[in-house]
Here is the input.
Amino acid sequence: MDFYLTALLQGLCFSALALGIYISMKIFNIPDITTNGSYTLGGAITGIMLTNHQSTYLILPIVIFAGGIAGALTGLITTKLKVNALLAGILVMTGLHSVNLIIMGRSNLPLISTSSLFSILNIAADPNHNTFWILSVFVAIITLMIGYLLKTDFGIAMRATGNSESMVRALGVDTDRMKIVGLALANALTALSGYMIVQFQAFADINMGQAIVIIGLGSVIIAESFINWFNITNVWIILILVLIGAIIFQLVLALTLAIGVDPNLLSLTTSTFVLLIVSLPRLSFGKAS
Amino acid sequence: MIAINNVHKAFNKGKANQVNAVNGIRLNIQSNEFLVIVGSNGSGKTTLLNLVAGTVFPDNGSINIDGNDVTKTPDYRRSQWIARVFQNPMSGTASDLSILDNFRLAAIRTKAKGLSIGVNDAFKQQVKEKIATLGMGLENKIEQPMGTLSGGQRQALTLLMSVMDSCKVLLLDEPTAALDPRSADVVMRTADKLITDFKLTAILITHNLKDAYNYGNRIIQMGEGAILRDLSGEQKSALKQNDLFDWFG
Ligand SMILES: Nc1ncnc2c1ncn2[C@@H]1O[C@H](COP(=O)(O)OP(=O)(O)OP(=O)(O)O)[C@@H](O)[C@H]1O
Ligand SMILES: [Mg+2]
Here is the structure.
């Protein structure tokens, strides 16, 4: 049972990432690979600053800012230099690998005796419950902020940008700027997940971001199946489904490990699982028609 | 209102497949003028419209709108004067957004898109009343995604959206090309009514010679990036539909 609690908590840590991927992939229609690098960037900054006894409250805005810069860079490269978005993301991600190594100073930072978000705040006596409540409050605040943003005039312009660029430009929106802001926001959220997971797992690792984009993608795709199934247009319900997607994704992974799948096969399991949820609707439609 | 001074635009410049899409056009369009552009495929009509809208920039020559030199102004800044209806209904509306959100964006075309929520009950009411004037029964569907509507419905809404915010120039590039004859008729009537009611300066590109005959108070024919014929006011009124067919004979 503890196994599933851990999965739930990880799912909550990854909710910010899932929201970030939802913004870049679903709202802007941009496949953004910067994610792998900005996630590790968030983790690396958190790790090194915690080992240097910095306050977790100070680290939080720095992580958000750093992730935002990484995303904005990808946005600038793709809009101003007209480099394909996928390639732009790969370039920034690759560059970030060195940056992250320089920040961390070595490839792994254990955080055994350092304080963290989960040790300085005490909401519940049981440490797992404590972590659960802190993460829940955190995720709730982020979701409320993103939800509000998407409802504003700026948010409408954002959502329209991925939909019909010609229309949005004709309606007075600088779509290049909009994409840069959008990718900055998405990667700030991703870095925030790195911040949370490092404090949750009590270590930072240079390879922690490997294939992290697939976790975000998987979560969003699970959410999308529900969205399409029930024809949901309400922004709040969509965001909550994305959060649920992040948690379901972690639970399924936990389940596969629990039934005895070799941990070495975890990446393979993950991608197979994502392939499955992407293709299942198509396969069943194929039969119907 | 719009002054196009000796504008040239070539694509694939310097290559073997260079196309001189617009070839030194001079055109002055007065306020409240409703200009119809006809011409065969590839004669440069869309390119000329895009030059006015600012989605392509001239190689030389200049463009003025409402007394401002906009030759190098990007499209999203020219939107303070210009509203557009595209040939493809998908281009003029955002499919995944609700009708309401589409209208909200259109209502702030000339303004900043800020961090406040603009869709409130008063706005909903305003949109419902606007849409009701179309008589398509869409006023009760404003929460639906735009993508659930037909092309004709979307074009009609795009037209309405163009006058949600202050608008001086309306650009219509074959707005009815993707529509069945009845929807096309509704869209053209709506356009004509809005142009009159809101005293817009309008440019309509069409291959439908009946529409070219029925609508507008000036007509030009384009060919190979140049203006072949230019008739306005009484000259256009005196024109017969058969004369138009003869232009393409
Ligand atoms: N982006 C582009 N790149 C290269 N060539 C282009 C481009 N846009 C237009 N052209 C060429 O410029 C010429 C004029 O095209 P334009 O689209 O303005 O014609 P049109 O009068 O609107 O034709 P139609 O009636 O078919 O819409 C054509 O030969 C076209 O192939
Ligand atoms: Mg054309």
